Amino acid sequence: MFRFILIRTGGLIGVLLAVSLLTFFLMHWVPGGPFDAMTAATAQMIPVELVENMEKLYGLDKPLWVQYWLFLKAALRGDFGYSYYASGRSINELIREHWPHSIQIGVLTLAFSAVVGLGLGIFSAMNPGKWPDFLGTGVSLFCMSVPSFVFAKLMQYVLAVKLDWLPTSGWEGWSEPKYWVMPVLANSLGPVLTLQRYTRSAISDVMRANYVRTARAKGLNRRRVTLIHIFKNALTPVVTVAGPMTASLITGSLFIEGIFRIPGLGWYTNAALGRRDYPLILASTLLWTTLISITYFVTDIIYALLDPRVAYVKER
Amino acid sequence: MNSADTAALSTPAVYRSVGQAFWYRLRRNPKAMVALGVVLLEIVIVIFAPWIAPYEPGETDYEALWSPPTAKHWMGTDDLGRDVMSRLMYGGRISIAVGILAQITQVVIGLPIGAIAGLMGRWVDYAFMRLIDILSSVPSMLLYLLMVLVLPRGFVSIVIALSVTGWIGIARLVRGQVLSLKTTDYVRAARGMGADTRHIIVSHLVRNTLSPVVVSITIGIPGSMMAEAGLSFLGLGITPPMTSWGQMMGLYQAYIQTSWHLTVFPALVLSLTMLAWFVLGDAMRDAFDPSIQV
Description:
heterodimer, A: mainly alpha, MetI-like fold, 14 helices, flat, B: mainly alpha, 12 helices, 0% strand, disordered N terminus
């Protein structure tokens, strides 16, 4: 186990380095610098000398390799520098301000999708060929074929414009459900689909396993077989998808946050891309990558703990 | 009952080739036929759009600005009085073409990489797998956005942007197939009877990998269409005067309170198209799999 953790940590560092390099150079390759975008946004000409001074201040006049090296040195200390756009504010401060909104939406989405996805998956696997199974298939087809932003707009039209049950957009934190019902529903299409499919196939597999037949044959209580023999074994593969899903949910969706005007990290990153706010783009990409890689890592460990047959490193 | 018996039961003996058996089994699935009908109908409509569409896509009718659906404009008009139905037909050209072309590009890149990684093994496999690890650790939407910004705006750039990470799925699939086939008894038996690598690749690998690849392409097309729609919705995909379903939704999403038809019709068409492709892909997977009774 220790060896496994060591190897994976090495891999994580490698991936983070590669991703930061890729994003850094791709980002700088995009035409237009941060101060061009600012000029365009305010429709004012900024004197060339001023732009030069600004670039000097943020180190943008140095060669790219030097800039990357400086970024890396600072990032290792947890310092991602200052935003070019929101002047005087550090990236860490901005992330602290915007991320909590995304986390709240993400956690709500996860809770909702877990209930619906697991419920539908279990329900349809236990009743193959009957109506719960058809319901499950219908829901999964819907989740698959309707993109989240399309569903968001359709809901906005029906629930907010036509019926006037909910406000079209806005965000007041998790304590105001009328603002988050639509974002959470729209955001949960993908997670519901994944969880439902995994759960259904995992449970159908386990139901056909010999040990379940044995348990039934020796006359064990039905509920006991379902809870202990089926669920406990079937939910192990579901754990593997839940981790990375959580990571990508809590970093916020560009579409959902944009459509419903939620000032979260996804929305802010998209805006930063338009403003060429390099430090913010880089920091939120790395945040995403780190979270995803860590969840993969943790998932693998949980998996090994749940399933004693799994061994990652050969015993010597 | 093993899978060969099932296949023998559900497929008449006269259909000897894989393609014939596949088509026979697909035809017996009504859902698949409806989906195939929708897909083909849409392709015909978008190809013949110049003859079918009631108006030109850029044609403006200043008598009917922001018109809701009427007898003259079945799906209404936009701010410039352009007919929404005609624009949907022309926009479909882009949406469907991006879906198909992006998928072809991804297969052209992914299939050889997967096959080479699986066949060569060792450091080649290791190198490609690490590359895939890195690419799949970058948020895909962010990578699309950066690529779209880096490349000159246009149709080809979107196909390229979607293919930068899109090939990973196919490569993984093919590699997995190759690795598992390498250890199957019939490949080992063929080896034992003195078959050379070329023979094994041609008559075992290609045949066995073909059907999952075809299914993955069919399911990948709506996936690429969704990604294009997303990019265009954000205003970073197809640029005017060209149009696509996602772009139409994005351009007029702010007017949903007053002109619902500008968002709702593209949304419905996009969803219906994706549904048809997914159902078709699913049915194709079943039709290729002899262990499933149709």
